[in-house]
Design goal:
Blueprint: H1 8-24, H2 31-47, H3 54-78, H4 101-119, H5 124-143, H6 150-159, H7 161-170, H8 175-198, H9 200-206, H10 211-215, H11 219-240, H12 245-264, H13 270-296
């Protein structure tokens, strides 16, 4: 009996399709995963005094990956008619026609159900907060045509893991959680405005609204004010929780990274603005390292 030959052309096509699916959910661009994940990790460590429950940590970590991937699929579906005309996005799989809109929606639904399955491992109130977060995330991609502050809405969606973490760890959202939440919202406004500065000219042509367009020539000044606000709010969190010098060192390192971002934004060049955006993954990291070390050496 002869063994059927494996169709190399079919395997090659399958491989290309899987690569396109991976690009649709941005597995090749992990910066977004970190930007969504760091506030959740800040909150888990602060809510648990440096010792998050293993199951809660696992659910949140996997949830960040799945939720961000689902959001990317939905975002590309919402932008499928404008992405082909934007320099940075014209080669995305959906914009380039390598993936169909129904496929993108199917991936979004599948990943959303996976996220729901994960959060169902936690308590009921955390599930309720997660459903609110899912709604915030689902609305965001469609706001960019009618709302001049989509970055602020994204800040609420991306920072919603903070009250969720406090609910999961403490069964309540304490005042310090809302201070941390506001820091997360302002931080998202910072980095997503930097991100929007990359596409400012293209967005103006295709009718996409953003804070980069809204702020105009005051963009660096407003971003700087928001950066000061982020550092101030995080300092307030440290005072409320009586954190020590490791926390302060992490905050000082974060302030230095914000200053570096301002130097990158100076001439508003596309590549430099994109570098400033990506640098925020390091900001989130140094804040978390400061929190973790502060509890480790308490």
């Amino acid at each position: 009996m002869s063994t059927p030959m494996i169709d190399s052309a079919g395997l090659s096509q399958l491989g290309r399709r899987l690569i396109d699916y991976g690009r649709l959910i941005r597995l090749h661009q992990p910066t977004g995963i970190w930007l969504l994940g760091w506030p959740a990790l800040w909150a888990l460590w602060l809510a648990s005094s440096g010792h998050p429950h293993e199951k809660i940590f696992t659910v949140f970590s996997l949830g960040v990956l799945v939720t961000r991937s689902a959001g990317c699929a939905l975002n590309d579906y919402a932008d499928r008619k404008v992405d082909p005309y934007v320099k940075r996005t014209h080669d995305r799989p959906l914009a380039a026609g390598r993936i169909t809109p129904p496929e993108a929606i199917g991936i979004y639904v599948t990943l959303s159900l996976a996220a729901l399955g994960l959060v169902c491992l936690l308590d009921q109130l955390t599930i309720v907060y997660a459903l609110v977060g899912a709604l915030l995330t689902a609305v965001y991609p469609f706001l960019k045509r009618v709302f001049s502050w989509p970055q602020a809405w994204l800040g609420v969606a991306f920072s919603w893991s903070i009250p969720m973490a406090f609910i999961a760890e403490r069964q309540s959202v304490t005042p310090v959680a809302w201070v941390l939440f506001m820091a997360g919202v302002l931080w998202t406004l910072v980095y997503d405005t930097e991100y929007a500065m990359v596409d400012r000219d293209d967005d103006l042509k295709v009718g996409i609204k953003s804070t980069a367009l809204l702020f105009g020539q005051a963009d660096r000044l407003i971003i700087g004010a928001c950066q000061i606000g982020v550092v101030g709010l995080l300092a307030w969190v440290g005072i409320l929780l009586q954190r020590g010098h490791w926390y302060a060192l992490g905050l000082a390192a974060g302030a230095c990274l914000f200053y570096f971002q301002q130097t990158l934004l100076r001439h508003r060049e596309r590549d430099a603005c994109f570098r400033a955006f990506k640098n925020n993954a390091w900001f989130g990291a140094v804040i978390f390292i400061g929190i973790a070390l502060d509890y480790l050496f308490i």
